[in-house]
Design goal:
Blueprint (H helix, E strand, L loop, with lengths): L2 H6 L7 E5 H4 L7 E4 L7 E7 L5 H5 L4 E4 L1 H7 L14 E5 L2 E6 L5
Parallel strand pairs: 1-3
Antiparallel strand pairs: 1-4, 2-3, 2-5, 5-6
């Protein structure tokens, strides 16, 4: 069994993910995400954005919801492997490909 098959059929139980309502409600595609140490119990540390949220939008906590990894993957399955990255990683989607924007110095 190859690794791609395993990743595509794996259920991720990594904790809750903060996602922008631009993605959930306005149906914008996810284009930027980062992972930090979780601030809340049961959280994954992931934050997912459309990439065009303005500061006023970002400052309003009501503009974000918590979802599971499976719910996020149902929106865009291309980010599934990103969700396995450790804390400190950030990714940006450009030309329909996810690219690492930042990574921790020590891995």
């Amino acid at each position: 069994m190859d690794i791609i098959y395993q990743l595509n059929n794996m259920e991720l139980n990594i904790g809750a993910i903060f996602i922008s309502n631009r993605i959930l409600q306005d149906k914008y595609p996810p284009k930027w995400m980062y992972r930090e140490e979780p601030r809340e119990e049961g959280g994954s540390g992931w934050r997912v954005f459309s990439g065009d949220e303005e500061e006023e939008f970002l400052d309003n906590h009501d503009n974000f919801k918590l979802v599971t990894a499976d719910q996020l993957i149902a929106i865009d399955d291309s980010l599934k492997t990103n969700l396995l990255a450790p804390y400190g990683f950030s990714f940006e989607k450009d030309n329909n490909k996810w690219k690492i924007v930042d990574a921790p110095e020590q891995l």
